[in-house]
Amino acid sequence: MEKRTLYWLIAITLLTVALRITLAFLIPNLTYDSYFHLRQVEHITQTGMPLYHDELSYGGRDILFLPLFHYFAALFALFLPLELVAKLLPNLLLATLPFLVFLLSKKITNEDTPSLISAFIAGFLPIFYSTNRFSPDALFFPLILFTLYCFLHLSEKKYLYLYLTSFILLSLTSSATVFLLLGMGIYILLAFLENKSVRSEEKEVLLFSLFAFLWIQVLFFKKIFLNAGISFIWQNVPSSLLQQYFPKVSILSALILVSIIPFLAGIWVVYRSLFQSPHRKVLLLISLVLATTFLSWLQLVRFEFSLAFFSLILAILFASFYQQLQEYLQRTKFPKFHHYLLPLTIVLLLLTLLPPALSTTWKQQTPVPDEIQAFLWLRENTPKEAGILALLEEGHLVTYYSQRHNLMDDQFSRIDDIDQRFQDLNSFYTTRFQTQALKLLDQYQLQYLVLTPAAASKYSTSNFNFLGGECFKKIYSNETKIYLVKCSLKEQETPK
Predict the structure, then answer these.
(1) Cβ distance 105 to 337 under 8 Å?
(2) pTM for the predicted model, two decimal places
């Protein structure tokens, strides 16, 4: 790599880091789902083991998940405050995407300028600008790109060992590693249809990867698979929430999140590669696009997750598009026009990438400071065995900040009555009948009700509709309201 190219690549990476961290600290708190992972990392730093049996979630249950990201974050949490790690680590990991995309693009085009443009795109893809989200995705995406890069270099022995190591780590990070496996399978099929040879080491590595992935998944999720069967793939999401987790594809939202220019460029490259001049490396990327689309269509992965991986592939393919466009312009009657291609491309990319990226950041759903203070107040002023009613999204705030039992959170696996429980949670915010509310409070052993501004906005209400008489006492009032339950339909007296 030339020094000039290296300097530009470092500049793009540093610019990405600076923007991501600045935006992350402009928003005070993490996204709601981040607090589950934050709690797991905290437990690892204290005990050395993940919290596979949670006494607080759903009033007590077992949770199964892949723990590599949490152990990785715990290493840093030994030296830095945990909430600082939660803001810095994901953004630093995702800031490596431009470097990895550059390497993959350079492998395909063998040119620096198109590869640098692809790196620039990867640094500002709007879908990756949930800067306050602390989750294994931050490790998964850089790791899958590195694994893919090693796969393209299997002829070199050192990369074979690096591939095997990175693939195992990837399989311990997320079950979405199936993207890579299915993509490589489609690649071998397309290569066969195009009469292109597939190297023997690629076939052997794919076979090893398949067995290694299945073994790791069975090792961690055997109990879920035995209990739920094939339906475990859908993560036991409540049926009324399936549309939210696996929405119908919106072309407009997809174009905004992946940026319209890489999207259109990707379509062009896919067309040329499949129907005009197939290229082995590009064929592999196209196979990954097909795998992502197929899994998303079957609702086997969340739409935004598959779209994020799809956008990275488009960023890599853009280098090939730019290279072809540059060659075409040089053959036209205006060969000097190609000198203006680079600045024009950068301007267009900035206009289509930066505003949606900033918009994605500001639209993140995070608790406001007043809500955090209310849940901290509950920890200091309620019995340890108390059960607390809060929104589904706020379930992890109850367990992380309040350290009390919640009714629900977004870890749905291995909960048998998930649909009924979600229906009952909604009933608390909509029912006008105090008897119904008290019956549910007894059933789920809840003694405190929390109404945050987020809950009030979601259900278009200023208070619980069933309040009245002496059964409920307001014990905390700010923007967030907390009520103590003083009555019970059962014979025994509830805690007061």
Answers:
(1) no
(2) 0.91
Is there a contact between 106 and 112 (Cβ–Cβ < 8 Å)?
Answer: yes
28's tokens: 């005070």
Sheet holding 387-389, edge to edge: 405-406, 387-389, 448-451, 481-485, 472-477
Residue 198 three-state SS: coil
Strand, helix or coil for residue 483: strand
Burial class (CB in 10 A: 0-12, 13-18, 19+), 300: middle
Task: Provide the residue-wise pLDDT of the chain in tens; the chain has 496 residues.
Answer: 678 889 999 999 999 999 999 999 999 999 999 999 999 999 999 999 999 999 999 988 888 899 999 999 999 999 999 999 999 999 999 999 999 999 999 998 888 999 999 999 999 999 999 999 999 999 999 999 999 999 988 888 889 999 999 999 999 999 889 889 998 888 888 877 777 777 888 888 999 999 999 999 888 888 777 666 555 666 677 777 766 666 555 566 666 667 777 777 777 777 776 666 556 778 888 888 888 877 777 767 777 888 888 889 989 988 888 888 887 777 776 666 667 788 888 988 898 889 999 999 999 999 999 999 999 999 999 999 999 999 999 999 999 999 999 999 988 887 888 889 999 999 999 988 889 999 999 999 999 999 999 999 989 888 898 888 788 999 998 889 999 998 888 744 444 4
Whole-angstrom distance, CA of residue 265 vs CA of residue 119: 15
Could you give the CA distance from residue 484 to residue 466 in angstroms, rounded to a whole number? 13
Q: Measuring CA to CA, which residue among 267, 375, 262, 347 is closest to residue 308?
A: 262
How far, in Å, CA of 154 to CA of 101, rounded?
18
Task: State how far the Cα of 31 lies from the Cα of 83, in Å rounded to an integer.
Answer: 12
- Cα separation, 372 vs 29, whole angstroms: 9
Q: Centre a 10 Å sphere on the Cβ of residue 432 and count the other Cβ atoms it contains.
A: 10
> For the CA atoms of the chain, what is the radius of gyration?
25
The structure tokens 């805690």 sit at: 495
Closest CA relative to residue 151, chosen from 224, 218, 204, 112:
204
Ramachandran area for residue 195 (φ above 0: left; ψ -120 to 50: alpha; else beta):
left
Find the helix packing angle between 68-77 and 137-151, rounded to 10°.
110
Q: Residue 87 and residue 331: Cα distance in Å, rounded?
A: 49
Cα(336)–Cα(161) distance, rounded to whole angstroms? Answer: 46
User: 481-485 and 448-451: which strand pairing?
Assistant: antiparallel
180/183 Cα distance (integer angstroms) = 5
> Is residue 476 within a helix (H) or strand (E), and if so which, with residue range?
strand 472-477
Neighbour count for residue 217 (Cβ, 10 Å): 17
